[in-house]
Amino acid sequence: MIENDLLVKVSDAGLYKNGKWLVKGVNLNITKGKIVTLIGPNGSGKTTTAKIALGLYKNIEGTVERLTNKISYVPQKVSIDWTLPVRVIDFMVLTQDLQDQEINDALNLTGVEHLKNNNLRELSGGEFQRVLLARAIAKKPDLLVLDEPVQGVDFTGEVELYALIKKISETLQCGILLISHDLHVVMSATDYVVCLNGHVCCSGTPVAVAQNKEYKELFGEKSSQLLSLYEHEHDHVHDSDGNIVKEAK
Amino acid sequence: MFDDFLFRALIAGIGIALVTGPLGCFVVWRRLSFFGDTLAHSALLGVILSISFDINISLSIFAVSSLVALILLRLQNTTNLAGDALLGLLSHSSLAIGLVVLGFLSFIRFDIMGVLFGDILSVNVNDLIIIWAGGAIILFVLWLIWKPLFASTVNYELAEAEGMNPKRVNAIFTILLAALIAISIKMVGLLLITGMLIIPCAMARNLSNNPKQMVILSIIGGLLSVFIGLYASFEINTSSGPTIVTVAIILFILSLSRIRKKY
């Protein structure tokens, strides 16, 4: 890991709120071109950790260093009130100035270019997530923080979008902090996994985490096998029929 | 031409409508209508201070309203009281204090109806200058903070994460609202200014499908309310402020037939 590839360094961070620790003792490095995934049960502090990394909390324990300002964020929940009429095209330029071409390209990548002039309230949950993702990648950020970016997306779409996220991290060379529930899909595309349960219960490469005792206790023996299975597939790529097509790296 | 009171009233009304449109949209989008009411109520104290110390009325309203806004921002961080309770507390305490102080000033002749409901026909050339100069400053600042303000209206954390400093633009917006109340009290009155802010925007929402369109339609709605309201108040001899707001309500009701409910 080269030092100047570092984008965010979270050291021993924690957040104490309303009489309890939401999360505690988090160490995390996000570097260019790598995907760091946060996993853990509900209420384990995944979203809190992501927000700590983004600097959204003022009174945290520990330190967060952010070495870039080009940050894009896909929050877990974005709700738009009826009184606020926003089209997809208005939403794309919410925090950034974009050329028409850039807007089209980004929407095209996530497969929702045809919805450009629709109102956000007309979109289905899955379509809305695709728009959120398109907006986040449109300005080619250095750091992308995705809080459950594929919720509500159908299964084929999910696989497709994770593949896209992987591709984005490679082509844009941006660092990605990803929060996800879908262990099976995510793990295969992740470089580093942090397993949270109020604290970091284990972290490392997907394989190392899968072998970890605490991880097995948290997610069950089965998920561990699932992961090993994926690690096994890591050295080659399948086509849609399941045939091995080429070496992957 | 500026000697004609009706003409001055019209120019004042146009100036106010140009500002209430865009600001009102943000008030509606951010669910701040009760907040606007609170600021307006605190304006009574400003009016009374201005009379007792003989300072400019707009300036003293602006100072008191800004102070109340800052106290609110401070209280939000120090108590766990719900937002609406906090606003009610501030709104009525500033109203009550204003009325108590008014009681001490029994020697002053004071047109309370004018403060509550506005007296657009008493607008003089000085008032016009304050309305247009103040309005231009408010619109200019709003234009400067438009993007971060809009982004933080759509999603606060997203805006903050992407470096838009929503806390600062929110505070600036609050000050702009206090300034608008300060320049428009004389025309619409403190009980009706929130109506002038919200009703044309509510009408505009029924007819628009994007934010810019909604702002433009609210300005048009505000202008129409001023034109028709002033004319009507002159013809049928009613108070100007309430008549303007009544026209705005009628426009809103008409707009319901074209409502775009599906988005």
Brief overview, please?
Chain A is 35% helix and 27% strand.
Molecular structure report:
- The complex is a heterodimer of chains A (249) and B (263).
- Chain A contains nine helices and eleven strands.
- By secondary structure, chain A is an alpha/beta fold.
- Chain A has two domains: 3-70 and 141-247, 3-Layer(aba) Sandwich (Rossmann fold); 88-139.
- In chain A, a hairpin with a 3-residue loop joins strand 8 and strand 9.
- In chain A, helix 3 packs across helix 4 and helix 8 (213-219) crosses helix 9.
- Chain B has a single domain (5-194), classed as ABC transporter involved in vitamin B12 uptake, BtuC (Orthogonal Bundle), CATH 1.10.3470.10.
- The chains are: A alpha/beta (249), B mainly alpha (263).
Fold blueprint:
The complex is a heterodimer of chains A (249) and B (263).
Chain A: E1 6-17, E2 20-31, E3 35-39, H1 46-54, E4 61-66, E5 71-74, H2 88-92, H3 100-109, H4 125-138, E6 143-147, H5 155-171, E7 175-179, H6 183-187, E8 192-196, E9 200-204, H7 206-211, H8 213-219, H9 221-233, E10 236-238, E11 244-247
Parallel strand pairs in A: 3-7, 3-8, 5-6, 6-7
Antiparallel strand pairs in A: 1-2, 1-4, 8-9, 10-11
Chain B: H1 5-29, H2 33-53, H3 57-78, H4 83-104, H5 112-117, H6 125-154, H7 156-161, H8 166-188, H9 193-207, H10 211-235, H11 240-255
Helix pairs in contact in B: 1-6, 1-8, 1-9, 1-10, 2-3, 2-4, 2-8, 2-9, 3-4, 3-8, 6-8, 9-10, 9-11, 10-11
Main β-sheet, spatial strand arrangement of chain A: 5-6-7-3-8-9
How would you describe the shape of chain B? Answer: globular
Structural class of chain A: alpha/beta
User: How many domains make up the 3D coordinates of chain B?
Assistant: 1
Q: Please mark out the parts of chain B with pLDDT under 50 across 5 or more consecutive residues, or reply none.
A: none
- CATH fold name of chain B: ABC transporter involved in vitamin B12 uptake, BtuC
The CATH architecture assignment of the largest domain in chain A turns out to be 3-Layer(aba) Sandwich
Our estimate of the beta-strand percent of chain B is under 5%
